[in-house]
Amino acid sequence: MNRGVRIFSDYVVELREGFLINTLAMSRFVIHGKSKISGTLRPVGNKNAALPMMAACLLTDETVRLTQVPDIEDVRVTLHLLEDLGVSCSFEKHTVTLCAKGLRKTRLDSALCRQVRSSILLAGPLTARHGQAVLAPPGGDVIGRRRVDTHFQGLAALGITIKSGGQEFRFSRDRLRGAYILLDEASVTATENIMMAACMAPGKTTIYNAACEPHVQNLGRLLNAMGADISGLGANRLEIRGVRRLHGATQAVEADFIEIGSYLCAAVATGGALRIPVRGKPAWLPVLDRGFARLGVKLDLSPTHIACDARHAACPAPPVYRDDIPKIEDGVWPAFPSDLMSVAIVMATQLPATILFFEKLFESRMYFVDHLISMGARIVVCDPHRVVVSGPARLRAAHMSSPDIRAGMALIIAALCAEGESVIENAQVVDRGYEYITQRLQALGADIRRED
Fold first, then answer.
1. What residues contact residue 124 under an 8 Å CB cut-off, 6+ apart?
2. Choice among 61, 74, 109, 141 that is catalytic
3. Which in 149, 161, 359, 388 has the greatest CB count within 10 A?
4. What is the pLDDT of residue 452?
């Protein structure tokens, strides 16, 4: 990638293609509200698919090429992790080319591991093919307790030994074996980790209560293209027959429906109109459509695009059988995605309705609503998992800090709706999940700038 990486305490300084970037450098967004988000947005690839697909390169010595990869911070850090192991990496025009033939070690850089949740995804394929892996506990957003024991239980069933001590996890194996694995939670990353390791485990592996999100399916299709034998993609029961070797492959990363949903929320909240080119009928489209319809927002769906116009937003319909207020609750796929809860709550502050939001997966996801309340949103916090939003509310500018990727995007949308100039600190957190967020919003009419 024509770059070097130097570690200085808690800072990672990256030299890439002539640019020196401090990946933990603090920055802020300065936003003037009351501008409509309108126009055409071309979606980027799904971050949550790209990261495990990049990890899959460790299963072969041949070249793995991924197209439509988003240019975001989590992708760059994962590339650093792989390159530090000896993987040949290139990233150009949203195409990542990886070759693990020159792998020289199995210990992951601790400082890089602590920056991203996706570092845990390297444990399964690295141990399955190369016999061992050593890594620090993964980092990522602080939105609640994010367990790794489901990873450990599934990998242990395949014959992998896990030891923890000090500030690292050690994975090792003598011989892999197929197994029947009942996951105690439908964890996306645990399903992906176990699935990658099981591809090289002799015999048949069954993963029951598997996650079946579109990004899990995207990884499965890549693995099958590499020579794996995986059936049941899209369901919660996967069957994997181990193979002796995998080969290289080229696969596209599917469009990021979380990014799409986030920008649609921004358009509706600010009173704008947005068109997003999307081909065919992706698996996530009915889930997105159902969630927006529950909020009274009609999406225009066609074989070539998704569109929304805030003028067509109506009051959400109450439940059919009882006169309760409308409720949006997240859950495992195909329920409403947890990653869209924060932006949907902001959109609800601008809708003519009272709506209950029930966050079931992460106990800290809702904490950011304190910022919205200080901006004038009418929100009742029932408990750490439930809030009631009454709109429309007149928001005022505020000085805030972004706590995580999705809450950061939600605060940007709130600032776009507010009167006056808002400042959002910790802007670099949003870079982990949204590509060129400032430039893309500016192109859609936002008055936003970034200060480093």
1. 55, 151, 155, 160, 192, 193, 194, 195, 196, 197
2. 141
3. 359
4. 86
Residue 330 gets which letter from DSSP?
B
pLDDT, tens only, 259-300 = 999 999 999 999 999 999 998 889 899 999 999 999 889 999
Q: What sign does the dihedral 202-208-211-213 (CA atoms) show? A: positive
Q: Is the pTM of this model over 0.85?
A: yes
Q: What is the pLDDT of residue 316?
A: 64
What class does CATH assign to 26-44+255-451?
A: alpha beta
User: Which residue has 């300084």 as its token pair?
Assistant: 13
Helices (H), 97-198: 110-113, 123-130, 149-157, 188-198
Report cis status (omega within 30 of 0) of the bond before 318.
no
CATH number of 47-252: 3.65.10.10
Q: Do domains 26-44+255-451 and 47-252 have the same CATH topology?
A: yes
Residues of the chain with pLDDT below 70 are: 1-25, 139-147, 313-323
Residue among 383, 388, 435 at smallest CA distance from 409: 435
Q: Output b/e per residue, 298-336; b: 16+ Cβ within 10 A.
A: ebeeeeeebbbbbeebeebeeeeeeeeebebbbebbeeb
Are the C-beta atoms of 342 and 405 separated by less than 8 Å?
A: no
Closest CA to 145 of 333, 330, 405, 363: 363
For the chain, the domains span 26-44+255-451, 47-252
Cα–Cα distance between 117 and 135 in angstroms, integer? 12
Q: Is the dihedral of CA 102, 108, 109, 111 positive or negative?
A: positive
174 flagged as catalytic: no
Report the distance separating Cα 204 and Cα 239, nearest Å.
7
Measure the CA–CA gap between 30 and 11, rounded to whole angstroms. Answer: 24
For the segment 362-402, what is each residue's pLDDT rounded down to a tens digit?
777 888 999 999 999 999 999 989 999 998 999 999 999 99
